Amino acid sequence: MLTTLDKSMLFCPVCDFLMSTYEDQFAMSEFSCCHNCFLTWAESRKKEWKEGWRPSKEEIQKQIVLKKRIILQ
After folding, report:
1. What is this structure's pTM?
2. What is the DSSP string of 12-26?
């Protein structure tokens, strides 16, 4: 069973997708999210992101649906 700490190193805390690339690890260390979430939300709002801003659950869900479509194609 994974502890919270172990899970946080494997999955993005925003979208819950597997952290699988160097870019994901870099984004996680700097912005506490995967590279895709960094590009989608954090990059354009670095200050707000570091202050705790996060997208709404609805925005995250839309991005998850889109990401799953891309992965399946």
Report:
1. 0.80
2. -TTT--B--SHHHHH
